[in-house]
Amino acid sequence: MIRHTVVSIAALALLALCHSASSQATELSGASLQLVTPGVTSPSSLSVPPLPASRPAAKTVVTPNSTPLRYRGTMLNKRDVLLREKVIALTFDDGPSPDITPSVLKTLARYKAKATFFVMGQWVQEYPALARQTAEAGHAIESHSFSHPTEDISLPHATRELERAASMIEQICGSRPRLFRPPYGALHWNMSKVAARQGYCVVKWTLCGSDGAKENAADIVRNVTTTARPGDIVLLHDGHDHEETTRALPEIMRRLSAQGYHFVTVPQLLRLWDTAKGPAKSVRKPARPAPRKGTA
Q1: Which among 17, 52, 158, 249 could bridge 190 via Cys, Cβ 3.0 to 4.6 Å?
Q2: Is residue 262 in some structural domain?
Q3: DSSP E strand boundaries for 60-182
Q4: Domain CATH for 244
């Protein structure tokens, strides 16, 4: 009888202790919980970390179209610096075109070369898979306007052309263009002026392939290879009716490769130019004298 009474008292005491511990755990729900394992002298502490107030800042990544600060908002129509390294930037305007661009991409891949495609927004919209394929191959996709106006246009119209092209390129290819090549290389047109104000680097070319519809492949090869210099930006086309360009390109790349050239994108070339020029020198403006008393 006495043993039964002792057991009952012990059970009630244990129940009360459990209830007290449960109440404390409820009251201290925000505190860390310690789990003690028999035989382990130093208990481990498990705590739920608070949610971060904001996402960590993204790392700066150099993408195929990253452009040095010194060239943003500028217009380029000549070699900014003569490089010792034999690099050259092939550029292709007016695409993408299902008749021409795949052949160009195949030749570039054969030489493990990267190039810059100044695309038209309307053709990116028409052939999104081809534009995306070009970007995924590691080539720079930059803006050549949306519809390639054949004459100068108003400032509002120029702004719309640039924005439509940039939005389409970003939507399909995943990154917003940082370079702009004006139709016909017209640096004095409103689109070039608007582009520069918006921070684009407006790029013309330093070597013209003259690969118009009436040129043959041999002439195009000669136009490019006979006067090429390190750091050149070469104008070619991958738009409709440029079959002769596809015939000329393998020979152009064969000859330039034999001369020791390798092929880079325009943003890569600008970074090489930037390194060769060194840090930009800041010009300190002279301090204005303090106004005399009694003057405005």
Answers
A1: 158
A2: yes
A3: 75-76, 87-93, 116-119, 140-143, 179-180
A4: 3.20.20.370
Say if CB 72 and CB 200 are below 8 A apart: yes
Q: Hey, what are 118's tokens?
A: 């100044």
A 10 A CB-CB count for 175 gives 15
pLDDT for position 281: 64
Closest CA to 116 of 204, 55, 23: 204
* Active site annotation includes 237: yes
Q: Please give the single-letter amino acid code of residue 148.
A: H
pLDDT of residue 127: 98
Number of domains within the chain: 1
Residue 54 DSSP class: S
Residue range(s) defining the domain that contains residue 212: 75-276
Q: Tell me the two tokens of residue 210.
A: 């003259």
d(CA 224, CA 266): 17
| 65 pLDDT tier (thresholds 50, 70, 90) | low
Distance CA 141, CA 232 (A): 18
Name the average pLDDT for the chain: 81
For position 80, what pLDDT does the model report?
Answer: 86
Active-site residue identified among 139, 144, 148, 237: 237
Among the listed residues 93, 232, 238, 274, the single catalytic one is 93
150 compared with 28, residue with greater pLDDT: 150
The rounded distance, in Å, linking the Cα atoms of 231 and 266 is 10
